[in-house]
TrEMBL record:
Subunit structure: Interacts with Spx.
The keyword Cytoplasm is assigned to this record: yes
Native source species: Solibacillus merdavium
Main location: cytoplasm
Family: Belongs to the SpxH family.
Keywords of this entry: Cytoplasm
UniProt cross-references to InterPro entries, sorted A to Z: Adapter_SpxH, Thioredoxin-like_sf
PANTHER family per record: CLPXP ADAPTER PROTEIN SPXH, GLUTATHIONE S-TRANSFERASE KAPPA
Protein name: ClpXP adapter protein SpxH
Designated gene of the protein: spxH
Function description: Adapter protein required for efficient degradation of Spx by ClpXP under non-stress conditions. Interaction with Spx stabilizes Spx and exposes the C-terminus of Spx for recognition and proteolysis by ClpXP.
Amino acid sequence: MNNVQLLQQPVAPSTCNKPIELYIFIDPLCEKALLMQMTLRKLQVEYGHYFTCRYVLSTELSALNSITSRMKGCVSGAELDITHPALPSIAIKAAELQGKRAGFRYLNKVQEVAVLNTRNINSHATLIEIAQQVNLDMDEFVSDFGSKEAARAFQCDLYLTREMEVEEIPSIVFFNECIEDEGLKVSGSYNYEVYEHILAELLGEELNRQPVPTLDDLFDHFSILTTAEVAEIYSINEQLAERELKKRMLQQKVERIMTDEITLWRAK
């Protein structure tokens, strides 16, 4: 694996007591990010007791200052809506200001809407609707979305991408709890077993795999999954995964959302 290297300048570790922290560099709307999500979810299910995740938004965009000023017009009602490719990333950073879990919920919903392609994900109005759907504090979100703080947070992500010399998206940088140790940068996407091996190497011990949860518990945790993700997590083929999911659809536990390219299953 050639795209693995040590970083010379480690960043401050998480204050969480889990020994490993993953910096996940993604373009949230890129198809490669969605494919990596499948691997990351299985890693969280089996080994989530070892690590935490921090998502770093790494889409290179310009003219953030002009977008922020136009968004203020939206908040004040001067404009009904604006559309710009920077808006989803700024909205995700605004959601993160309400906490890490809120940020994760919002990011996942943004990716869901992008995959379904039924609404314009670059629209200010669509991003406001998503915040309502994931139960964010709306007054706080609208204020943060139109503020310089969210745009600066996105700019900080772009700075971190350059500082760590991340040139391929998606990429993951692994840090352990010792601040003196270098980070391990893995550029691009690889098979699940590669990330499993890296975790074991960083921990210096054999990994203790957590029991795979029931399908109902899995949907309690992730709320929406693809057929491929369910197959990956349970190490079964997609035909068997779809059969089990259809059973739960008949039991009215999940609903199926289909497009020409993908099938999503959402907990009811």
